[in-house]
Amino acid sequence: MEHVRTHPVDLVIVDLRMPGMDGLQVVQAINQVSPDTEVVLLTAYGSMDSAVQALRLRIHDYLTKPASPPQVLAA
């Protein structure tokens, strides 16, 4: 988050489950400090609830693991 606050960032790929903050919390923070940054959410624990929350937070793409390199590049 500190890097996003202090540098222009075009794209962030974030996992849904992380220690400290979950991916949706990170996306909320990114939206506040850098609204032009695109976000791709990558998760092994996808659910309809997290997908709906991601859409509400303007996630650019929502990928489930294992995502292939071509899927990540397409996102």
The spatial strand order of the largest sheet comes to 1-2-3
Structural class: alpha/beta
Shape: globular
What percent of residues adopt helix (DSSP H or I)?
A: 40-55%
Please tell me the overall pLDDT. 89
- Share of residues in strands: 15-25%
Count of helical segments?
A: 4
Given as residue ranges, the uncertain stretches (5+ residues, pLDDT < 50) are none
3D structure, described in words:
It is built from four helices and three strands; from the N terminus they run αβαβαβα. The chain has helices at 2-6, 23-33, 48-56, 69-74, and strands spanning 11-15, 38-43, 61-64. Strands 1-2-3 form a three-stranded parallel beta sheet, with helices on one face. Strand 2 (38-43), helix 3 and strand 3 (61-64) form a beta-alpha-beta unit. The radius of gyration is 12 Å and the shape is globular. The model has no long low-confidence stretch (mean pLDDT 89).
Tag the structure with descriptive keywords.
41% helix, 75 residues, 4 helices, 3 strands
Task: Write a brief structural summary.
41% of the residues lie in helices and 20% in strands. It is α/β, with parallel strands linked by helices and 75 residues long.
